[in-house]
Amino acid sequence: MTVSDAELLDLARTAAGNAYAPYSGFPVGAALLLDDGRTVTGCNVENASYGLTVCAERTAAGRMIAEREEVDGDGCRPHIVAAAVVGLKASPCHPCGACHQVLGEFSCERVIVEGPSGVPVSIDFRDLLPHAFGPDSL
Ligand code: THU
């Protein structure tokens, strides 16, 4: 079953409802679509230290790794077909630079954010991080 960009944004919006964001009051949700058709969601998790806050995209990436069913060796890397991001207090809500780097680790192809009236806007990942340092850089 394929997941549309609008459906992926809906998953991200639902995940944002679980955000733990008492300091910023800025709930964010992310939904990753993997090449096996699976979807994984995450939300931001803030901390009283502020600096230990984890963004929604990175909690989703952590779940993607932790909840893998089949791992074919240490080097087995999931492939993110698309990452949808929703901020409940602002749209569009684009991933921060740190999240670009983490999404890029898993060959993310596209980022989807909400445009005017919630219409999905798809951005080619290479336009976001054109000279990425990634697994092939080592
Ligand atoms: N945030 C995310 O969850 N993802 C991003 O890519 C940008 C920022 C969160 C972190 C923090 O909890 C709140 O938004 C305000 O910066």
Automatic annotation (TrEMBL):
Q: Which NCBIfam families match?
A: cyt_deam_tetra, PRK05578.1
Q: Which family does it belong to?
A: Belongs to the cytidine and deoxycytidylate deaminase family.
Listed cofactors: Zn(2+)
Q: Which InterPro entries match?
A: CMP_dCMP_dom, Cyt/Deoxycyt_deaminase, Cyt_deam_tetra, Cytidine_deaminase-like
- Entry keyword Zinc: yes
Query: In the Enzyme Commission scheme, what number(s) does this protein have?
Result: 3.5.4.5
What's its catalytic activity? Answer: 2'-deoxycytidine + H2O + H(+) = 2'-deoxyuridine + NH4(+); cytidine + H2O + H(+) = uridine + NH4(+)
- Alphabetic keyword roster: Hydrolase, Metal-binding, Zinc
A molecular function (GO) term: cytidine deaminase activity
The entry's function note states:
This enzyme scavenges exogenous and endogenous cytidine and 2'-deoxycytidine for UMP synthesis.
Biological source species: Corynebacterium pygosceleis
What range(s) does the CMP/dCMP-type deaminase domain occupy?
3-136
Name of protein: Cytidine deaminase
One Pfam family of this protein, by short name? dCMP_cyt_deam_1
